[in-house]
Amino acid sequence: MEITGKVAVVTGGASGLGAATARMIVEEGGHVIIVRIPRSYNAPHRVVRDRVNQFWARSSASPKKYEPNVEELRRLFTDPPYLADRIQSFRTDRLAKIGAGQTPIPLAAGGKVVLHVIPLPSFADSRLLDIVSAVAAGYQVPLPLDGPSGLNQHSVNLEGLVNYAGRPTDPPLSYAQFFRSGAIEGVSELGRNDEGNSYFVGRLLAKKIVFAVRQYLDVLKSFETGLPVYVFLSLCEVDECVFRHAPEGFPVETSPLRRNIVALPEVYIDSFSVDVPVAMRPVFNILWNAFGFLQCDLYDQQGRWIVEA
Q1: At what angle do helices 202-222 and 276-290 cross, to 10 degrees?
Q2: Residue pair 238/198 in contact by the 8 Å Cβ criterion
């Protein structure tokens, strides 16, 4: 904290002695400026002033800044790519397990759509959320990828908490796994045509994904997992999958995809109030491209989402 006259500038939040001093300044008619600087996940950062270049860091053991040594600088330069690799490895491992049928809730064989929403801070800090206690206290849980249903039910498991859309006799259609790391995995079965091939209707799939991303972001916000968040859309077991559309009003199916797994590029989210359809548009375009379409037809010429809620 710096105090000049009757103005206090508090960096990093007002707590402890800083809060008491700030309160005294205000009571005496002064002003307090609180400067909050969010944590950066693209370290290190260098300060250049008067031809002097310096790297600075903070330690969890002390609020005071310090100049990191060579070994710490080496770690700061290598940590960000390592975090990206960890997230990608998590996604790859989960897709392999889903394809092998190793899901928290048994699903029917065939094509599946998979959504991963992963907060970077939890991977950076190896943080474990107390999901069970939070849910018992009334926190919201991620919905199955197919959305809300009167048959939804959730239970705790080794990884955290699973919420699934149950059916009386058959396997569930979809689920959402909330990992203790803060990552959310939503999985849903694709439809089956008369030939037994998996298929999806573009408009319905996109609406489902947009709704789920919004709801999963709300869950992460309530759990204060932090930003940024990475969103990954994938398809599993889709080597015979077709895209069903109706250009002339009659359903038409494309040729099969001929790929078992489709892992689309990540979407970077840096705000919980993000316009989800706009953020997801590049990924939808690529998915449409995979089936021979020039672009996703759910946006107008200005890139605005034209799908009804």
Answers
A1: 140
A2: yes
Q: Report the C-alpha gap between 161 and 97 in whole angstroms.
A: 17
Instruction: Round to whole Å and give the CA distance between 175 and 210.
Output: 16
Query: Cβ neighbours of residue 91 under 8 Å, at least 6 residues apart?
Result: 116, 118, 232, 234, 263
- Cα 121 to Cα 36, 55, 75, 86, 286, distances in angstroms: 17, 22, 17, 12, 28
Instruction: Return the pLDDT at 235.
Output: 98
Strand 31-35 relative to strand 7-11, pairing: parallel
The two three-digit tokens of residue 21, written as one number? 């001093």
User: Nearest Cα to 212, choosing from 281, 141, 152, 150?
Assistant: 141
- 84: exposed, middle or buried (Cβ count in 10 Å: 0-12, 13-18, 19+): middle
d(Cα 142, Cα 177) in Å, to the nearest integer?
8
The Cα 145–Cα 163 span in angstroms is 10
Query: Mean pLDDT by 10-residue block, N- to C-terminus, for the chain (309 residues)?
Result: 53 54 78 72 76 76 74 74 87 96 92 97 84 90 91 91 78 89 96 91 96 98 93 96 84 92 97 97 98 96 90
C-alpha to C-alpha distance for 61 and 289, rounded to whole angstroms? 50
* Rounded Cα distance, 45 and 85, in Å: 21
